[in-house]
Design a protein that fits this description.
Layout (H helix, E strand, L loop, with lengths): L1 H20 L3 E3 L2 H10 L7 E2 L14 H8 L3 E4 L9 H6 L5 E4 L19 H5 L13 H4 L5 H5 L25 H4 L8 H6 L4 H9 L20 H18 L4 H26 L6 E6 L3 H7 L2 E7 L8 H13 L4 E4 L6 H7 L5 E4 L13 H17 L2
Parallel strand pairs: 1-2, 1-3, 3-4, 5-6, 5-7, 7-8
Length: about 400
């Protein structure tokens, strides 16, 4: 009896020791936190920096969150394109931590911000930056031949091979200099300049209650990369590789967890494609331009976005353009978001007979942890299905 008790105490102690020795990891947003938690299963738990009910575009750090950064060994964040306000705190408060911007993950599909309020066919066909040597070196891929056909399904992305994958080697990313080389006219965004003069009241009407947007660019890379679950797979592999370097004692666990999670996401992608296939010709409008990756992955046809991709205030001209497009292009649904005031959506859709549903890019209503990311993709698919079916 005593031996059983002693053995149990020792096992408990060893388990607590393993947990205590796990690296202290911080993730910026709930979907990233979920991916990291999947990779760290059985080793430790990451901390979440930005709570889901707070838009990353409007985030302001609290003292408790600063302490979390200060103690971090590794910080996984989407990147300065999404939260430029995190750049300085990570460099100063988390100066001893390894900082990993997941937009630089190998195999990630990148796209540019869409520059107009109303989207055309080109916006749905162009993956701006293509895939970056996707999955070529992930050992888990070789272990799961039953999912090879899943990757064959993504040959539609082969049209992006015009961007030579070697040009996008993320080990020498050079701060996304390729954006400049691809001919983006940064002076062409007149509507964005017009919006800079909006007073507090207009900004509040647009659903932001006066929050700053920390000098987000309205052009260049669209940072909502996590909304393509194929990118989620790429991020899982990257997270595992980083943690294996930081914590080699648990490297095998990280890699095994990532491999399992990647296979589960591959299955989820196939299920979601089948679920949304009948809805690909149904036009809709989103609250802010955050869903390009999700739309492109599953062949959905967004007509436009009420707000810009960084969720900053829309001009009166933009709203009028959206209203006109809704009439001309047979929009059947408009999506709201839980982080923002919905009254601007009501103003845009007033008098129109449209279905409406909530689309949440970060998982406000979902339980935080390993299960959040796949549930987020399912929730987005469910919202699209409910609203687009009419």
């Amino acid at each position: 009896m005593k031996q059983g008790v002693i053995g149990g105490v020792l096992a408990l102690g060893l388990g607590q020791m393993a947990l205590a020795e796990a690296p202290k990891v911080v993730a910026d947003i709930a979907p990233v936190h979920s991916l990291v938690a999947q990779v760290m299963k059985g080793v430790g738990e990451p901390s979440l920096l930005i709570q889901p009910e707070v838009s990353p575009h409007d985030y302001a750090m609290r003292p408790s969150e600063a302490r979390s950064l200060q103690n971090a060994d590794v910080v996984f964040w989407i990147g300065h394109e999404l939260t430029p306000q995190l750049e300085d705190p990570i460099e100063t408060i988390a100066s001893k931590a390894r900082s990993e911007e997941l937009v630089d993950a190998k195999g990630l599909i990148q796209m540019d911000f869409r520059e107009t309020a109303v989207f055309g066919d080109d916006d749905h066909d162009d993956h701006g930056h293509g895939e970056h040597d996707e999955h070529d070196d992930h050992e888990d891929h070789a272990d799961h031949d039953d999912h090879d056909d899943h990757h064959d399904e993504h040959d539609d992305h082969a049209k992006h091979d015009e961007h030579d994958h070697d040009e996008h080697d993320h080990e020498g990313h050079d701060d996304h200099d390729e954006h400049a080389e691809e001919g983006h006219d940064h002076d062409a965004h007149e509507e964005h300049a017009d919006e800079d003069g909006h007073d507090h009241e207009e900004h509040e009407e647009a659903g932001h209650d006066g929050h700053d947007h920390h000098d987000h660019d309205h052009d260049g890379l669209d940072p909502h990369v996590w909304l393509d679950p194929e990118n989620g797979r790429a991020m899982l592999a990257h997270i595992a590789a980083v943690l294996a370097e930081v914590d080699p004692d648990n490297a095998d666990t990280y890699r095994a967890n990532a491999a399992e999670a990647r296979v589960q996401l591959a299955v989820l992608i196939e299920e979601t494609q089948a679920r949304l296939l009948p809805l690909q010709d149904r036009g809709f409008v989103v609250f802010h331009d955050a869903y390009h990756y999700f739309e492109e992955r599953f062949g959905l046809e967004s007509v436009g976005a009420i707000m810009l991709g960084d969720a900053s205030a829309a001009s009166a001209a933009r709203l009028a353009e959206i209203r006109e497009a809704m009439k001309e292009r047979g929009v059947v649904c408009v999506f709201t978001e839980p982080q923002f005031n919905p009254k601007i959506v009501r103003a845009v859709t007033e008098g129109a007979d449209l279905a409406s549903a909530e689309m949440d890019p970060v998982g406000v209503s979902l339980e935080q942890g390993p299960g959040l990311y796949p549930e987020l993709i399912r929730a987005l698919a469910a919202s699209a299905e409910t609203c687009l079916k009419g």
